[in-house]
Specification:
Elements: E1 5-8, H1 23-34, E2 40-42, E3 47-54, E4 57-64, H2 71-81, E5 89-95, E6 103-107, H3 115-123, E7 129-134, H4 145-149, H5 155-177, H6 180-187, H7 194-201
Helix pairs in contact: 2-3
């Protein structure tokens, strides 16, 4: 499997900037910045896109501007234009089932309640690669899920994500440069958190 398109998911507009649901946008922005690239609005794709070169490889970076629930419409158009398969697509997005800051790489499976991923599965197919970043569970069960994912990170949460940013960039380069099995084994290693360490001392 060779990655040709990397897409970060989010919602366009200042209203949603820096929200939990836009962490996909944030990471693909950071990746593009590290490559000294810039975004171009492409109406035919309903997305902001950039063509970048890493080594000898050319990649398409994308941020769908369709709003989250219609992400598949945009990415489907991109894949058709470049004659790329679903398996050559890497999608970066938020995951409420993972603890804050934890990264996980997966493929296939369900959307896990994520509407953007659900739309991509329906319009593109299930075979794309998924790089998920944990945003943590709702603080209260009664809280509306939409309100939670559209909320902004607290300062301490943002600090943790900023500290993890170099690791996320290393992960993305690993996915691009190495074989997928190596990327899976490296990224999905369960590393103890500070919470785990405190818990183990009490046992």
């Amino acid at each position: 499997m060779s990655i040709a398109v990397i897409a970060g998911l989010g919602n366009p507009g200042l209203k949603y900037r820096n929200s939990r649901h836009n962490i996909g946008f944030d990471l693909v922005d950071l990746l593009l910045s590290s490559l000294a690239g810039s975004w171009t609005a492409e109406a035919r794709f309903e997305a902001e896109v950039s063509t970048v070169k890493i080594g000898e490889r050319k990649l398409i970076l994308a941020k769908p501007q369709t709003f989250m629930n219609d992400s598949g419409r945009s990415l489907g158009a991109i894949l058709r234009y470049y004659r790329a398969s679903p398996e050559s697509l890497l999608v970066i997005y938020d995951d409420i089932t993972l603890e804050l800051g934890r990264a996980k790489l997966s493929t296939n499976g369900s959307a896990g309640g994520h509407n953007g991923v659900r739309d991509i599965i329906e319009r593109v197919g299930p075979g794309f690669l998924r790089y998920r970043i944990g945003i943590g569970a709702k603080p209260e069960k009664e809280m509306d899920l939409a309100d939670y994912v559209l909320s902004r990170f607290k300062p301490a949460e943002k600090k943790l994500l900023d500290e993890n940013a170099p690791t996320y960039m290393d992960h993305l380069r690993l996915i691009i440069d190495k074989d997928i099995e190596t990327a899976f084994n490296t990224i999905n290693q369960r590393k103890p958190t500070s919470h785990d360490s405190c818990h183990n001392k009490q046992l």
